[in-house]
Write a structure and sequence with these properties.
mainly alpha, about 70% helix
């Protein structure tokens, strides 16, 4: 059984580059709204499938949205985001849930720095691939599925703008 990867680690991968290029020069607000929305719609359900009672990833997305709307201060949002990262660490035995929580935490962290938005692709695509194929799939199968997910993310970002 191959060891589960925690993220897609090649920013130069041909399926990551179009997303990276499109993200370039976009405002932190634009990227945060997109990443938070995408993570909530497509990645959070992967977490909930395994840990339906643990609301920390959902709470981090909600806190990030509240910060974007001016309802809370950044330190309040960061506390919830750090709790999401803790949930990811605690889910270490479950590659789908761990990658999903990391993707959600990175998406929410985009309110702090736009650079975190790429974490949605790096962690989210692997979460989708493991959920779809299982952790025993070949590296090539995982890469192909992750590439499809990155294409969906790219389309979502294009449609968002």
């Amino acid at each position: 059984m191959p060891k589960a990867r925690k993220l897609l680690s090649d920013l130069d991968a041909p399926y990551i580059q179009p997303l990276v290029k499109l993200m370039g020069g976009k405002s932190k607000s634009t990227l945060a709204h997109w990443a938070i929305g995408y993570a909530g719609q497509f990645i959070l359900p992967l977490w909930r499938k395994h840990y339906p009672e643990d609301l920390r990833p959902q709470n981090s997305l909600e806190a990030a949205q509240e910060w974007l709307s001016g309802k809370i201060k950044l330190p309040q949002a960061k506390k919830k985001i750090l709790e999401c990262h803790a949930a990811a660490r605690e889910a270490g035995i479950n590659p789908v849930a761990q990658a999903a929580a990391r993707a959600i935490g990175q998406s929410a962290s985009t309110i702090h720095s736009a650079r975190h938005s790429i974490g949605l692709a790096l962690y989210g695509a692997i979460a989708v691939a493991y959920d779809t194929l299982g952790t025993n799939a070949s590296r090539e199968q995982i890469e192909t599925c992750a590439a499809s997910e990155c294409e969906r993310m790219l389309k979502a970002l294009q449609d968002f703008m």
